[in-house]
């Protein structure tokens, strides 16, 4: 039976529900949806979808680092947008984080996101360990 390890990081916002920041299992890391929340204040960063996207990806990076991995090991992301018209703004910031061999990705408009967020991003990554 595969072992399931809960990933914990002090550099990411606390979960706002009964879920783990990330789970490592069978050589993969499953990162829960990340919002553009500042870990210190627990609130969305001001500035709209671009600032939220940047912070969400920084939070994702911190989660992966806590698991011994990094963004270069991400194989799939899912992006949830409050407004699909923000796709190009999100995409421009996203491209800064995935410059080489970007992961597979899906993006959707959703009716609403927690805390009134503009964007939420989840990921599946390879474990950084061989």
What's the structural domain tally? 1
Strand residues, percent: 25-35%
Order of strands, widest sheet: 1-2-3-6-4-5
For this structure, the CATH topology is 60s Ribosomal Protein L30, Chain: A
- Given the C-alpha coordinates, what overall shape results? globular
- CATH C-level class is Alpha Beta
Summarize the helix and strand pattern as letters.
EEEHEHEE
Query: CA-to-CA gap between the ends?
Result: 19 Å
What's the total helix number?
A: 2
* CATH-derived architecture: 2-Layer Sandwich
Number of strands: 6
Q: Helix/strand/pairing class, anyone?
A: alpha+beta
Average pLDDT reading: 95
Concise account of the structure shown:
The protein is of the alpha+beta class and 130 residues long. It is 22% helix and 28% strand. Helix 1 runs parallel beside helix 2.
Please characterize this protein's 3D structure.
Helices cover 22% and strands 28% of the residues. It has 130 residues and is of the alpha+beta class. It has a single domain (4-126), classed as RutC-like (60s Ribosomal Protein L30, Chain: A, 2-Layer Sandwich), CATH 3.30.1330. Strands 1-2-3-6-4-5 form a 6-stranded mixed sheet, covered by helices on one side. A hairpin with a 2-residue loop joins strand 2 (22-25) and strand 3. Helix 1 runs parallel beside helix 2. It is globular, with a radius of gyration of 14 Å. The protein starts with a strand and ends with a strand.
